[in-house]
Amino acid sequence: MIKFEDIDVLVLAGGKSSRMNYNDKALLKIGNKTFLENLEILFSNFNRKYISLNLSQNISNDSFIRIDDEYSEIGPISGLYSGLSKCIGNYLFVTPCDVPNLTKDFITYITDFVSNEYDAFIVKDKDGFIHPLMGIYNKSSLEKIKKSIDSKDYKVLNLVKNLNVKYIDLKYTIFDDSKILKNINTPEDYKNLNISSENKTKFFAISGVKNSGKTTLITKLLKKFKENGYKVGTIKHDGHDFQMDNLNSDTDKHSKSGAIGTLIFSKNKFMFLEQTEEQPLDFYLKFFHDYDLIILEGFKGSIYPKLEIIRQEISNISVSNPLNLKFIVSDLKNIDNNKILKILDLNDIDTIFEEIKKYVF
Questions:
Q1: How crowded is the C-beta side of 52, counted as CA atoms within 13 Å?
Q2: 193 touches 30 (CB < 8 A)
Q3: Per DSSP, what are the bridge partners of residue 51?
Q4: Does one domain contain both 189 and 83?
Q5: Can you give the CATH number for the domain in which 311 is found?
């Protein structure tokens, strides 16, 4: 079995970007992060990360080791060759810099295919199209890559035909390949991306009766999401009309556990708190639009997707709106509910975290 530490990462960012008016696509922004910064988060679990650039580019990031193309004017095959020549691991996860919809789940799925039997592990989309710049290459492919360059055949699609390739077919997976594999090549692509990103925030409610442990579970989940590179905020409804000089202690717990922003409201007022340096006025008008997820505390009667906590000695039946109630977390084994719902262990934060991701990402 291939060890995870044997797989390095290479971001291909050395193209001219002529269709993007010669702007470096790695530095384009979605929300408040550049494409490269998003990739840094997505590949945070990999020990070594490289970025392939041409000599004229002035791009730096402390998380990526710069590799300059050994050959100029021959396209991405040069970056692929240079990356495989200089990386430490035996395998190199290759990705273009302009795929801002890539996800951690997709990356993990690809790495699960790696073995020492193949020269490369290349993604094939649901229409059967091969994506040679999205996959993992073995150092065993280096000789054939050099042979292609020497023979002036610079098309990577032609190269993979000469390699022993394991194609990772997405046809029967749940991945939205049309979105995940979408390259941002033109200003129009970028404009459409920014329009769609304005509505990217997802919501998920943590419900339950009073004292069921909602805040405790939320604080644990916030830490988990933060560790995995997600930007998460919280919203809490206070039915007792909170006082400005005595904010609910649960809100403070949200912030200390990793919520970058949190909002509390009652029937008469609301307050939005975010950890940030002072910004121009228009910044504060954005609120949560560029967050990955907003966790709602309570809202058991809402139509938002939710889990419900049912805890021993507090409650033994479901009281949430069954519409969009996805699963239950509990320290009980038998719960009286009208829907046959999955019941997860209240203390198994890793499983709860993964289950929430299924519904919001």
A1: 33
A2: yes
A3: 11, 66
A4: yes
A5: 3.40.50.300
Structure tokens that stand for 27 in this block: 């530095």
Structural domain tally of the chain? Answer: 2
Same domain, 148 and 67: yes
Domain limits for position 136: 4-197
Nearest to 140 by CA among 121, 153, 154: 121
pLDDT tens sequence for the chain (361 residues): 566 678 999 999 988 888 888 889 999 988 778 999 999 988 988 989 999 998 888 888 889 999 998 898 899 999 999 999 999 999 999 999 999 989 888 898 899 899 999 999 999 999 999 999 999 999 999 999 999 999 999 999 999 999 999 999 998 887 888 889 999 999 988 888 865 555 455 778 888 888 899 989 999 999 999 888 888 888 776 655 555 454 556 667 787 788 878 777 776 667 777 766 655 434 543 566 677 888 888 888 776 789 999 998 888 888 887 767 889 999 987 776 656 788 999 999 999 999 998 888 7
Residues 89 and 219 placed together within one structural domain of the fold: no
Considering the domain architecture, whether residues 243 and 101 belong to the same structural domain is answered as: no
Q: Is residue 17 within 8 Å of 23, Cβ to Cβ?
A: yes
pTM for this entry: 0.57
Q: 147 with 17, same domain?
A: yes
Is the domain of 56 the same as that of 177? Answer: yes
